[in-house]
Design goal:
One of its GO terms (cellular component) is cytosol. This protein is α/β, with parallel strands linked by helices. Helices cover 41% and strands 14% of the residues. It contains 37 helices and 34 strands. The strands form nine sheets. Strands 2-11-3-10-9-4-5 form a seven-stranded parallel sheet, with helices on both faces. The protein has a seven-stranded parallel sheet with strand order 18-19-17-20-25-15-26. Strands 27, 28, 29, 30, 31 and 34 form a six-stranded mixed sheet that branches. Helix 19 packs antiparallel against helix 20, helix 28 crosses helix 29 and helix 29 packs across helix 30. It is globular, with a radius of gyration of 35 Å.
């Protein structure tokens, strides 16, 4: 019995200029149909229609894709702004002109002048506030959501994110394996064959089950006493998962998978879930998800729970390009979403390929289902109807310019067996090199991005694995055709990384063994025979050279080392003279640059550099991190060779496919199977994402036969989709190979070529080889060619005219005022020149960002000596100094005042922090007792007399780090803004009677007034408090100060030394008002794109500078209603707005 899925909404062609989608919409793309264009166009239309940019969210899968999407959306908004501007100008001049050729631009430029003006204002506002838009990878989105949800989320702020948990996986696997089986009284590991479940298999199981933590394991043992290999493998797998989770939590580690699972758990929590979900729905009203076919069940569950049915959700993807199952992507999540969507549209025009190529590929694939009946190749129209690959001056051989060429080795029915792939693959390599050489020599014209002859850079070769790519690249280079392997992994996975590791090891310990090893690297260039015959003098000379290099590295750094070696060993000339030398030299320099940057940033010595490089190599070779791409300036001039997976999303004029005939389909060997279990109790269902399971039971597990059959079906679908991606990368031509081998029957090309043409879309698993493609009549657009059918014509790259070299003149002006600065840097000169009155000392209190006053500074007191009466400060007996300030800041950042016993919490955190400072002369109890009163002191009218203890973590944003552009930032404006302009603004806008009304005079001092405000200003606000008032929330900047404001010779320290008038003087002396204003501007800009309906008058709540030594709890003395120790200031919101504009380079009003 078979159960079919619920009928989905019928797909219809999507009109990008039609009504804007609402509800949940799936847009099914095909290769080359413009997914990114559609997303950017929809985003622009939503914004023009009045949707705030900050309420749009766009998600894609990968950092490079995210960067491209961000660029394309910004370009689209800029194009719309320009088109609307021109349209308004035409209307103003009563000249209708011509409508834009782009249909979306034409649509948005249609309407009366008032309507166009409103759209223009919205688009301009979106461009000005573009940083507020959420364009992120799935994992970045999850991290941000967990951060924003705060206490509503299952999130540990001090947990450490790591991309790779490989070491922990191996540790857990080994420990669980030994614990379970080391003491067993029978042969290890237990009475089952060790080759089936030995240590290697155990690590394999552990890696897979941990990498798929959300996937159920099968087959489940019938009872806990079952003694069988499948049952024991299941128990081992569940034990590994449990231990792995425990150790991650204990070590405060989390991974990408944890982010997803924690966010889903947060949204589904019966207590906090509804509030968390509502917060996300309020935040984002339009959600667009690109590459949705690459999602997984957890990601889809998050989107469905948070947004479906409430926000507009547009899911854009192409299930035919779902090729990342090995990374956890699950195309069945996409198919489930199609079944739940309110509407399904298709993008039905191919903007990439020539019409002839589109038609030929349609002949090959149209109507075919790729692993599931719901994933069908739909017909598409071609935008490029003309041929863009045409004959040049020389006559091209027959068939060479056809859109699809299939080169084959004729089938021999008399052969006893098919040839080995080990013989056939080199034969294809030779034919591929010969064919590319013939094509280049024939000189056909390519009309893609301009006219010109076909060049090596117009050709791509797509393979399955990088090893095969290196083989083909070597063959092409040996024949004189430039070739490069793209995306071959991280540069740290290259041989050059090993050479660097060998060199650094020798520089750290220049012993004979290490020196001999370096001699065989490109840095020295000896051969093995030369090393074997080297005499004592040669080895002594090399040893002296290595020791000299070691001194260069120690005293001058990695960059100087590279230049020294290049000069000493004629490195560039020697390496470039070898085959593939350009790539090798580029890799060596690339790694050298990374080492230099790392050493400089972290002040690392050679030992630390060795550890850093070894870790990068390990990560690269386990493919656990996003790749550090290998670069070469001449890559675009060479034949580009890359994997099919790496080619997704790219396009090339001409594509060669030497491997889509080659697929090995092994028998079931007991490996783990990650499949969708669609058959249960004799009933077969159409699979869904909820059916995903991981079979850990091996060959003898219950239900293994059905799951192995499903695995063959899904694997075959993956291979067909991989072939679809490969075939559709081309703009003008595809060249593929077919060979008769034991790997051919189950290959994608064999299944596509020899399928039944009666209209049935589902393909058989295998098509036996009974003939070759030469017997097929595929119609126009195809050329079926036996290999070796024409002589090889050598191709030589055209010589480039060498012009006379001349020195380049540096004629740019250096902007010496541009810098990255901070509050501390801006005020350093003034602090260093002031002569302070005795009696008031300011501690440095270094924060994460350099925004505190310098060490050992004194604060002048212009009023009187400190009072001798009043309550004693709770911190009177506590030390002074930078270390103490750091500890206090850390405590205030970490405390959750509503977590239970506040005193106990403070004591525990104090103990944690003091553990890093064993020399401190205080106990955790003394420190907690000194800090506790500050949490219980009313904060005064500015905070509705709330205490810090009354404000939950959800309403306290700690350590808000910012970086503000000054006078345009990276694109400096012409206006010269200086700190004196800030003083002028204060003098003009501060009302009379303001406690800081004298501060503009201090900013007028030349050492301060002349400070340029050009570049970037960075800092970190200790905390922002959200105070809930009758008219809504307001936000208050808070800074914690541990300054000693008493007389050092007069003890004890009194709370009344921190009276409001004394605090005002202390604030001005230390230039804290400048810090407070800069922080307020940062908060103003932050709230502009984070607070719905932001109004500075309502939402900017002022500043609280908490001098914690003067805060004594509920009984803290008040003067004019203000508690001692609390400095409150709420300048006019107009001041903050004008200051923000001034810092951005705007002219003063």
């Amino acid at each position: 019995m078979t159960i079919a899925p619920p009928s989905a909404v019928e797909a219809t062609p999507f009109d990008i200029c039609g009504p804007l989608p609402t509800g949940t919409t799936v847009l099914e793309a095909s290769a080359g149909t413009g997914k990114t264009y559609a997303i950017a166009a929809l985003a622009a239309r939503y914004i023009a229609a009045g949707e705030p940019l900050s309420e749009l969210m766009m998600i894609t899968f990968g950092r490079m894709a995210t960067n491209e999407l961000r660029l394309r959306i910004r370009e689209r908004l800029a194009a719309v702004e320009s088109a609307l501007s021109h349209a308004l100008d035409r209307d103003h001049e009563d000249d209708q002109g011509t409508a834009p050729a782009d249909e979306v631009l034409a649509l948005l430029c249609t309407g009366d002048q008032d309507e166009l003006r409103v759209r223009h204002q919205r688009i301009r506002a979106a461009l000005a506030d573009f940083d507020s838009v959420m364009i992120a990878t799935t994992h970045e989105y999850c991290q941000r959501m967990l951060d924003e949800l705060g206490v509503l989320g299952d999130h540990e702020p001090d947990a450490v994110f790591t991309e790779s948990l490989t070491d922990l996986v191996h540790e857990v696997a080994a420990d669980v394996y030994l614990r379970r089986y080391a003491a067993a009284p029978f042969e290890p590991p237990f009475p089952f064959s060790s080759d089936k479940f030995g240590e290697v298999t155990a690590v394999s199981i552990a890696t897979e089950v941990i990498g798929s933590e959300h996937v159920p394991l099968v087959p489940v043992p019938t009872d806990d006493t079952t003694l069988s290999e499948p049952a024991e493998r299941y128990r081992f797998a569940t034990d590994v998962r449990e231990q792995f989770t425990i150790r991650k939590r204990r070590r405060r580690l989390y991974s990408y998978e944890d982010m997803l699972l924690r966010l889903r758990a947060t949204l589904k929590d019966p207590v906090t879930g509804p509030a968390a979900v509502q917060r996300l729905r309020d935040r984002y009203r339009i959600v667009l998800i690109d590459e949705f076919q690459d999602t997984d069940p957890v990601q889809w569950d998050i989107i469905r729970t948070a947004f479906v049915g409430h926000s507009t959700v547009i899911l854009i993807g192409d299930p035919k390009q779902a090729i990342y199952a090995f990374r956890g992507a699950d195309v069945y999540s996409y198919l489930d979403a199609v079944g739940e969507a309110g509407s399904v549209g298709t993008l039905a025009t191919n903007w990439r390929s020539d019409g002839g190529l589109v038609d030929a590929l349609g002949t090959l694939m149209s109507g075919v289902t790729l692993g599931d009946p719901r994933i069908a190749v739909r017909p598409v129209a071609a935008s490029h109807t003309e041929r863009r690959l045409i004959a040049g001056d020389a006559l091209a051989p027959p068939g060479m310019l056809e859109p699809v060429r299939i080169r084959y080795q004729p089938y021999d029915p008399a052969a006893e067996s098919a040839e080995s792939v080990d013989v056939l693959r080199p034969r294809i390599t030779d034919d591929l090199v010969a064919d590319i050489s013939n094509l280049l020599a024939a000189g056909p014209q390519l009309r893609v991005n301009g006219d010109g002859r076909v060049r090596p850079g117009d050709i791509a070769v797509l393979v399955r694995r990088n090893k095969r790519a290196e083989e083909i690249a070597g063959a092409l280079i040996r024949s004189g055709i430039p070739a490069v392997v793209l995306g071959a992994g991280s540069v740290f996975a290259s041989e050059s990384a090993d050479h660097w590791l060998t060199l650094l090891t020798a520089l750290e310990q220049p012993r004979q063994q290490q020196i001999r090893a370096v001699s065989l690297t490109p840095f020295v260039g000896w051969t093995m025979p030369r090393l074997a015959t080297a005499d004592e003098a040669a080895l002594t000379g090399l040893s002296a050279t290595i020791r000299r290099w070691s001194r260069v590295l120690a005293h001058r750094g990695v960059a100087a080392l590279v230049e020294t070696i290049t000069s000493d060993e004629d490195l560039s000339r020697r390496i470039l003279s070898d085959l593939g030398g350009e790539r090798r030299l580029t890799d060596l320099r690339h790694i050298g640059q990374s080492l230099h940057a790392t050493a400089t940033a972290g002040q690392l010595g050679v030992g630390a550099l060795i550890a850093w490089l070894r870790q990068r190599i390990d990560e690269a070779r386990t493919q656990s991190t996003e790749e550090r791409s290998r670069r070469l300036e001449t890559d675009d001039q060479a034949v580009q060779i890359l994997t099919v997976h790496g080619s997704k999303g790219l396009e090339f004029p001409i594509v060669y496919l030497p491997e889509i005939w080659d697929r090995w389909c092994p028998d079931d060997d007991g490996q783990l199977l990650r499949i969708h279990q669609s058959r249960t109790d004799g009933i077969t269902r159409t699979p869904s994402a909820d059916d995903l399971v991981l079979d850990v039971g091996g060959l003898t597990g219950a239900g293994r036969k059905d799951r192995a059959a499903q695995d063959r079906l899904e694997s075959g679908g993956d291979d067909l989709r991989l072939a679809y991606v490969a075939l559709t990368r081309a703009q003008v031509q595809v060249v593929a190979w077919w060979m008769d081998s034991r790997n051919t029957p189950g290959s994608a090309l064999q299944r596509l070529l020899f399928r039944s043409r009666d209209g049935a879309g589902e393909l058989a698993d295998r098509y036996p080889v009974n003939t070759d493609p030469g017997s097929l009549a595929l119609g126009p657009g195809f050329s079926i060619e036996p290999i070796g059918d024409r002589p090889v014509t050598s191709w030589r790259a055209p010589s480039r005219a060498e012009g006379a070299l001349r020195l380049r003149t540096f004629d740019r002006e250096l902007d010496l005022a541009w810098r990255r600065t901070s509050y501390t840097s801006l005020t350093a000169a003034a602090h260093g020149t002031e002569v302070s009155a005795a009696g008031v000392t300011s501690e440095p209190e270094p924060a994460k960002e350099d925004d505190e006053t310098p060490a050992a500074e004194t604060l002048a007191d212009a009023t009187a000596r400190p009072p001798v009466d009043g309550p004693v400060s709770p911190m009177d007996g506590l030390p002074m100094g930078a270390a103490f300030g750091t500890v206090v800041h850390a405590i205030f950042e970490r405390v959750d005042p509503q977590s239970g016993d506040l005193a106990a919490t403070l004591r525990q955190i104090a103990a944690d922090e003091l553990a890093h400072l064993p020399a401190q002369e205080m106990t955790p109890q003394a420190l907690a007792d000194g800090v506790l009163p500050a949490w219980l002191t009313p904060l005064g009218p500015l905070a509705d007399d709330l205490r810090l203890a009354d404000i939950p973590v959800a309403d306290r944003l700690s350590e808000l780090t910012f970086e503000l552009p000054l006078a345009g930032g990276s694109t400096p404006r012409d206006r010269d803004v200086r700190l004196g302009d800030v003083g002028d603004l204060l003098a003009r806008t501060l009302p009379g009677g303001d406690p800081l009304s004298r501060y503009p005079e201090l900013l007028a001092q030349p050492l301060l007034a002349d400070q340029p405000l050009r570049g970037y200003l960075n800092g970190s606000i200790d905390a922002v408090l959200r105070i809930h008032g009758v008219s809504g929330p307001r936000y208050v900047v808070v800074d914690y100060k541990t300054n000693w404001l008493g007389d050092l010779d007069q003890r004890p320290l009194r709370v009344t030394a921190y009276s409001p008038d004394r605090l005002g003087e202390a604030m001005m002396h230390a230039h804290y008002p400048l810090q407070a204003l800069l922080y307020s501007v940062a908060l103003h800009r932050y709230l502009r794109w984070r607070q719905p309906g932001y109004s500075p008058d309502d939402h900017l709540g002022g500043m609280l500078y908490l001098f914690v030594r003067g805060m004594a709890g509920p009984d803290t003395p008040r003067i004019d209603g203000i508690p001692c120790g609390v400095f409150s200031w709420r300048p006019p919101s107009e001041l903050i707005i004008e200051l923000s504009q001034l810092l951005d380079g705007a002219a003063p009003r």
